[in-house]
Amino acid sequence: MLVRSLWLSDFRSYTSAELHLVPGFTAVVGRNGAGKTNLLEGLAWLATLSSFRGAPVEAMVRRGAPFAVVRADTEREHRELLIEAQLALSGRNRVQVNRQPLKRARDLLGALRVTVFTPDDLAVVKGGPGERRRFIDDALVSLHPRNDALRSELERVLRQRGALLKQSGGSLDESAAFTLEVWDTKLVEAGEALARARVDLLDRVRPVLAETYDALSVDSSDPPAKVEVGYESAWWDRGLAEALTAARRDDIRRGVCTVGPHRDDVALSIGGFPSRTQCSQGEQRTLALALRLAVHRVVADEFESAPVLLLDDVFSELDPERSQALLANLPLGQVLLTTAGDLPAGAEPDAVLRVRDGRIEPG
Question: What's the predicted TM-score (pTM) here?
Answer without folding.
Answer: 0.93
